[in-house]
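SAMPLE LOG
Freezer: B-3
Tube label: C17
Construct: single chain, 499 aa
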Amino acid sequence: MSRKECLFAFFLFLTVWTVGDCSSQEIIVLPQSTPPVPVLPKSSKPSARRDWYVAQPIQVTQPIQTVAAITEINSTDSVIDTKSDSPQAWTLDQVISAVLTSDPKLRIGKEDIRQAQAEYCTSSLLPNPEFTVEGGAFPFIPIEKGEYWGGPPELNFQVEFSIDWFLFAKRKAAMNSARWDVCQAQAEYADLIRERITEAATTFYDVLEAKAILSVSREDLELLIQLEKIAKNGVEAGGIPVVEWKRINLDVLQCRQELLEAEKTLDILKAQLRSLFGCVDYDPNFDITGGLNAPTVLAPMLLEEAFAMAQQNRPDIRALRIGVSKAKADILMEKRNAYPEVTAFAGTGREYSKLAGEDKDYNNWGIGLTVSVPLFDRNQGNKARARSAFVQSNHRYQAGIVELHAEIVEADRNFRTAQKQSHIFAKEEVRLAKEVRDIMVEGFRAGGRPLIDVLDAERSYRETVRLFVTSRADYWRALYTYNSVVGIDSINNVHSITH
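STRUCTURE (predicted):
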C-alpha cells in the first residue's frame, strides 16, 4: 500500500470516528449518582435534607391556607401523655426525612428513573458506521509481468452508514417516546414518595396511639393492684366479702393481659415504622414524641374542588396522562419504523494493473445507496399494537379518574367523621371520668363505697380514655390521608389543609 493510500485510510477512519463521537451531544445528561445512605445508628437523628430525589415536587396551583396552629396545639397540655423524655426521640418531621433518604422502596423507584434515562440515551445515539476492507484476484504464486491471465488484483475500502434515521426522522420519534418514558418514571416516583410519606405519617400516629393505650393500661394495672391490696386487707379483717376480692383478682389478670397485648402492639408498630427508613435491627430504645390533640377549626374543601385539585396535582394521575402521550408517541414511532432502511456507502480502491500487463496501477472510488423494499413487512403488527396500547392507555386513564373520585369521597367522609368524633370525645370528658374514678377509689378506701362501683368507674374511665385516644389518632390519620388523596404536597407542607 502506498503512502497516499495510507493517508486516505487514516483520514477516512478519523472522519468516521468524528461522526460517531458527535452523537454524544444528543445524550441526555444523567444526574449525579447519590452517595450511599449510611445506616442510621440507634441514637441518631436523620438530616432534614429532602432535595435529593429526582422527581419534580407536586405543584399546588390553587391557594392553600396552611394551619400553623397545629404545632402549637400539639405542644399544649394533653390528657394522655405521648411525649417522650428521651433526648433521642424522633419527631414526625425526622421520621419523614429518614423515609425520604433511606427508604429502600424509594431507591427502587429512583432506579426506574435512571433506567428510563438510559433508554433515552440509547435512543439518542447515532447508528455505528460499517467499515469494510476487501481484496480479490490476487495470485497464489509469483508471476512475471504480462503472464497473469485473470483480472487485475484489487484492494477496496468501503464505509457504510445508515441514513434512514435522518431521512424519515426515526431517531427523533424514538427519542420522543423515550422522553415520555422518563417523564412517566418521574411521575411514578413522585407518587411513590406521596404514598410512603402517607404511610409514615399514619404509622407514626399508630405508634402514638399504642403508646397512649399502653400508658393507660399501666395506670389501670397500678390502681387495680392497690385496690387488690386494700381488698385483701379487708378480707383478712372481715370487712369485705371474699367474692369481691376474687372479682378484683380477675380484673387484675385481665388488665395484665391487656398490658401484654399493648406492649406487643407497640413493639410491632415501632418495627413497622423503622422498616420504612431501612432499619433491619431491633432497637428497644427507639422512641417517638408527638401530640394527639386535634384542632377543631379545620374543614375539608368541597368535593368538586378536591376532585379538580387531585386531577391536577396527583402524580399518579399525571403518570396516567403521560402514559397516553407516550402511547401516542409510540404510534408515530412505529409509523416511522415502517419506512425503508436506507444505507449510504462510499469507498476507494486500487487496481494493480501492472500484473495484468498494463503500464501502471490505477486508483478508483465509488458511492451508492442501499434501500430496502417494504413489499411484505411494513411493520403492520407493531403499528396495530401501538394503536391498541393508545386505546388501552386512554381506558386506563379513565379508570384512574373513576377510582380517584371514589378515593376522594372516602377520604372526605373519613376526615369529617373523625373530626366529629374528636369533638364528641373531648378531654373534659376524660377528666370528668378520671375525677369520678378517683372519688370512687377514695370512697372505697374510706369504706363508704362498694368495690363494684369502683370497678365500674375504672372501666368507664378506661373506655373513655381509649375512645379519646382512638378518636385523636383517627383524626390525624384521616388528615394525612386526605392531604395525600387530594394531592397536597406533604414534603414541603406536611401540616397543610384547605378551608
